[in-house]
Amino acid sequence: MNYFKNCQTLDEAKKLFWDLAKKHHPDKGGDTATFQEILNQFERFRPASENEKFNGEFDQWNAQEYAGIIEQLIKIPAVTVEVCGSWIWVSGPTKQYKELIKAVDTVASYKRGFSKKKLMWYFSPTGYRKRGRRELSIDAIRDLYGSKKVEKDERDSIAA
C-alpha cells in the first residue's frame, strides 16, 4: 500500500504520518512491519509542489529525525502533542513532565524551546526564519497551517 500517494506537500505528508503513527505504532498495538513500511515510505516522500521543493524547507527536511521526535513525545503521558506545519507543540501539564520533554532527543534539524507567551513547548526546524515582526497566537498558527492533536483517549491507549 502506498500511504503517501495522495500527498502533494510536505505538510500533508507530515500530518498523514502523524495520523498513521498514532494508529500503527507498535507501542499502540500496531504491527512493527506495517509501521516500518510507513516510516520507510515517509522517508522517501518527495513533494509534488515545485514551490515547496525549492523554497528551502524541503532541503533541510529529515523525515527520520521528525519521526523520532514524534515517537518520543507520544509516549509522554497527559500532555497534548500537536503538529502545526513543520512545528510540533506540546501543551497541558508540561511543568509536571518538563524533564521528560527536555529529555526528548533533538537532532540537527530541530530545536526545542518553551514559548512563554503561548505557555507551550515547541520543536521547530533549525532553519526556520521568522518572516514578520508580529507574534502569532497559537490559534492563528492553527488556522494558517492546520493542526493535528493526540486526544486524551488516544494518549491513554498509547501509554497503556
Number of helices: 8
* Helix vs. strand class: alpha+beta
Number of domain modules: 1
Taking all residues together, what is the mean pLDDT? 79
Strand content: 15-25%
Span between N and C termini? 28 Å
Can you tell me the overall shape?
Answer: globular
Topology as a string of helices (H) and strands (E):
HHHHHEEHEEHEH
If strands are numbered along the chain, what order do they take across the biggest sheet? 3-4-2-1-5
Beta strands, count: 5
Secondary-structure map:
Layout: H1 10-24, H2 32-44, H3 50-54, H4 57-60, H5 63-73, E1 80-84, E2 87-91, H6 98-103, E3 110-115, E4 120-125, H7 138-145, E5 148-149, H8 152-159
Antiparallel strand pairs: 1-2, 1-5, 2-4, 3-4
Structural description of this entry:
It is a single chain. The protein has a 5-stranded antiparallel sheet, sandwiched between helices. The protein has 160 residues and is of the alpha+beta class. It has one domain (10-159). It has helices at residues 10-24, 32-44, 50-54, 57-60, 63-73, 98-103, 138-145, 152-159; strands at residues 80-84, 87-91, 110-115, 120-125, 148-149. Helix 1 (10-24) runs antiparallel to helix 2 (32-44). 44% of the residues lie in helices and 15% in strands.
Features:
5-stranded antiparallel sheet, 160 residues, alpha+beta
In summary, what is this structure?
The chain has helices at residues 10-24, 32-44, 50-54, 57-60, 63-73, 98-103, 138-145, 152-159, and strands at 80-84, 87-91, 110-115, 120-125, 148-149. It is of the alpha+beta class and 160 residues long.
